[in-house]
Write a structure and sequence with these properties.
This protein has about 300 residues and is of the alpha/beta class. The protein has nine helices and twelve strands. Bound molecules: zinc ion.
Length: about 300
């Protein structure tokens, strides 16, 4: 049995899957916000409960917002800030009395979709989560690449390629850099662009709905979003040349992206043809926790 834990900012989710990926059990509890010791206690209790219920000991993989720093062994880059600087990778294996594998939550998402999701069977997969933020992960032959700095796939904090007039004046990113892809492709960024173009304050979802319903302004803003996504993914294709790019997160619910973006990315790809497919995540919100379980794949 494989146990996956998705350590989120608002909830901790656990899943138990068997050898062929069938779900045996799924549980979630609220995240003990602002307390690292309580977070540890909650994870250990979840694992023990799952094992008691199923009656079997499992491997444990944990998806975290951020990464375990190879330099210090401590959590870094986490938006759940109470985890930053904590020795999670030491404490959890000790408390659970077994080795535990950790990965960034976007890497878990990409792994889940590569193993038995929308990109099942593909050799090279790039997973994108576009929601409140923009993250990414690379999976090759069913293995999520961590990278020597534990940042493989963190494409959202690359600068937007070939910036146009008007794209150089976006607000600075929380990461301290300027012009990050996340500043253009996150849900809040799409909403901000709509307001800056003279629209009302709407969510990304409602902008897409308005565009569908014939609102010319929403359609123009969405078209700009699609062109930016094509430009940003073009540079990904040049580096990792994935068979499939899987889109997850709230923005992945915009249907027209899957047709429009691949029609726009060719000028940014160094190739005569581009057969990379852009597809919607198959496991939705469950991809993170499934991928955490799949961190043990042998
Ligand atoms: Zn940034």
């Amino acid at each position: 049995m494989r146990i996956g834990i998705d350590l989120g900012g608002t909830k901790i989710e656990a899943i138990a899957i068997d050898r062929d990926g069938a779900v045996r059990l799924r549980w979630r509890v609220p995240s003990p916000r602002d307390s690292y010791p309580d977070t540890l206690t909650a994870i250990v209790a979840l694992v023990r409960s799952v094992e008691d219920e199923v009656g079997e000991r499992g491997t444990v993989g944990v998806g975290i917002p951020g990464a375990i720093s190879p330099a210090t062994g401590l959590v870094k880059n986490a938006n759940s800030t109470w985890l930053i600087g904590q020795p999670l990778a030491d404490d959890l294996p000790r408390l659970l009395d077994r080795p535990v594998r950790f990965a960034n939550d976007a890497n878990c998402f990409a792994l889940s979709e590569a193993v038995d999701g929308a990109a099942a069977g593909a050799e090279v997969v790039f997973g994108v989560i576009a929601g409140t933020g923009v993250g990414g992960g690379v999976v090759v032959h069913r293995r999520a690449l961590a990278g020597v700095n534990a940042i493989a796939g963190e494409w959202g904090h690359n600068p937007m390629p070939a910036p146009r007039d008007g794209e150089r004046s976006v607000p600075p990113c929380y990461c301290g850099r300027v012009g990050c892809i996340e500043q253009f492709l996150s849900g809040p960024s799409l909403a901000r662009d709509y307001v800056a173009s003279g629209g009302r304050a709407l969510t990304a979802h409602d902008i897409a709905k308005s565009a569908c319903a014939g609102d010319a302004l929403a359609a123009a803003v969405l078209a700009r979003y699609e062109e930016r996504m094509a430009r940003a993914l073009g540079s990904v294709i040049n580096v990792v040349d994935p068979d499939v790019i899987v889109l997850g997160g709230g923005l992945s619910n915009i249907d027209r992206l899957y047709d429009s973006v691949p029609m726009l990315w060719a000028p940014y790809v160094f190739s005569d043809t581009v057969t990379t497919r852009l597809v919607r995540a198959a496991h939705g919100d469950s991809s993170g926790v499934r991928g955490a379980a799949w961190l043990w794949d042998e």
